[in-house]
Amino acid sequence: MTEFKNTERELYFFRLRLTVLGVLVLICFSLLATRFAWLQVIRHDAYAAQAEENRISIVPVVPNRGLITDRNGVVLARNFSAYTLEITPSKVRGELDTLIDELATLVDIQPKDRRRFRKLLEESKNFESTPIRTRLTDEEVARFTAQRYRFRGVEIQARLFRQYPLGAVASHVIGYIGRVSQRDAEKIEEMEDAANYNGTSYIGKEGLEKSYEKHLHGVTGYEEVEVSAGGRAVRTLSRTPASPGSNLILSIDIELQKVVEEAFGDRRGALIAIEPSTGDVLAYVSMPTFDPNLFVEGIDQQSWDALNTSPNKPLVNRPLSGSYPPGSTYKPFMALAALELGKRTPSNSISDPGYFYLGSHKFNDDKPGGHGTVDMYKSIVHSCDTYYYILANEMGVDAIHDFMKPFGFGELTGIDLEHERRGLLPSTHWKRTAYKTAPLQKWYAGETISLGIGQGYNHFTPLQLAQATAILANNGVVMKPHLVKQIEHGVTHVRTLTVPKESYRIALKQANIDIIKNAMVGVAREGTAARAFLKTEYVSAGKTGTAQVIALKKNEKYDANKIAERHRDHALYSGFAPADNPRIAIGIIVENGGFGAEAAAPIVRKAFDYYLLGKRPVEKPKPGAETLVVKVAHAAPVKASPTAVAAPKPAAASVAKAE
What we know:
Blueprint: H1 7-42, H2 44-55, E1 56-61, E2 68-69, E3 75-87, H3 96-103, H4 111-123, E4 130-133, H5 138-146, E5 154-163, H6 171-174, E6 176-179, H7 182-189, E7 202-206, H8 207-211, H9 213-217, E8 221-227, E9 233-240, E10 247-250, H10 254-264, E11 269-274, E12 281-287, H11 301-308, H12 318-321, H13 331-340, E13 350-352, E14 355-358, E15 361-364, E16 372-374, H14 376-381, H15 385-395, H16 397-404, H17 428-434, H18 438-441, H19 445-449, H20 462-473, E17 477-478, E18 484-488, E19 495-497, E20 504-505, H21 510-525, E21 541-547, E22 570-577, E23 584-590, H22 596-599, H23 601-613, E24 615-617, E25 629-631
Parallel strand pairs: 2-10
Antiparallel strand pairs: 1-8, 2-3, 3-4, 3-5, 6-7, 8-9, 10-18, 11-12, 11-23, 13-16, 14-15, 17-20, 18-19, 21-22, 22-23, 24-25
Helix pairs in contact: 10-23, 13-15, 13-21
């Protein structure tokens, strides 16, 4: 039977399907057109910027770090350019060790370079370039460049390096820079000017390099660089130049610094020399020293272990963080306190039998049999302990504390280095807060006695001793001690003083100051330091000191030969010169050096001779020969002016004990 198709029905469905398909096609094209309009019109600027960024790379231009010079223009920290072989781990194909082995066939890579690379790699991010070798020779650069295509992720970069041309001299002052660690990067991210450190690989780690980091760093510049699809720079489109960091002009006289460091020799200790009228630190010595150049590119493990485990602790900044009893260098300040507080007059005398009793406890003078009749002048010149035992007992700990505090004892000086230690100037309030139990919180009368001779709880930094001496020399006018005298702008070269005016003044009677200064002149002329300052061409003032390191047993006498070297007494000296118009004030400690007159005062003599007269000892005098002095060409001799300080009492028949 023949079946007839419904043509109209089929045509209807065909047209319906065609219409639906057309609508779908129209919708699809409408969506494409809408998306196209979205991309080309609405999102045009954003995608145009992305395309531009893919073609243009913003490269930071790291500024030249500022220079550091001494007060006379001698360069202490500078920059130089050299080539570095660097690896970016994220771009390396294959094993990193295999790559380094292949590089070693072209460039000399030592085991210490590999160890340093691994250490730096741990501290850096995987996408950052890390140096495997620094300071390549021209020949090494040429060899690698010819084979560069073999080493993906390895580049030669021209870098600026920091150098400390004088090596270990003044290393605790200058400090050093080092590569930015993960911890440094986290701190930088928290800084307001974090963007200024884009591209920066090095940052100040210690010393002035750290405390003046923002001044030394400069302002980072930028380059717009067109890059190829492979990431290689094709051409520079624009450039915003970097601004170099500011230069630091120090107050340090580096030649004086050398004289003092040489005078210390192998001994441990610290010396700070200050210009009283300005607060300029003329010499800042911490012995032993270290070479800061070791740290710039990451110190190797062997050198680090040698420095870090040395019993001499060369990394310790002794003037800043060392804390010691001041010994008898405290006595002039005690005497000044007695005058100012009305506890003594210069003529008030005591009879010294060689000891002082408080209850049943006996405090011995270091001179058996005592000093006889002792007034204030003699108590300083011959360093009579008994005089100050009695004085401390009469004054009391709180009166001592209140008088000494303005001189900076137990206070931060505010010097321009980080990690300054406060030291300890004791008081009853301090003891109540320092201890938790009632018996320990109580201040006992016997604890006051030792304070008078600079022992007991007294612990101060060498910097505080030097600062107090400078304040005394400057008649109570306090100038903040500082190592950077001026900051020179990197672009304009305009110089700015860091300490333009005095901090404050201590209300002292000039007559009382003159009495103390006169007695300190006597110390150098006829007292405990007379041998060290024999035949000087200037009049100096000073005070020797000896500080116990360990307590002796009852009735035990001190014998250095029977005590381990590190348990022997510390030797101290504080003084200034010329006495009538001080240009230099010094505080010094020679650790375990014994008597201040024998170990510390001769070093101060050499410092005074150089700074005032332009003389320095011959470097290596022959054994037994008299020490000679020679004048250096750049330092003009200064004639000693007549002293305005009252003439000291007539010389005693014999030179006083060497304290």
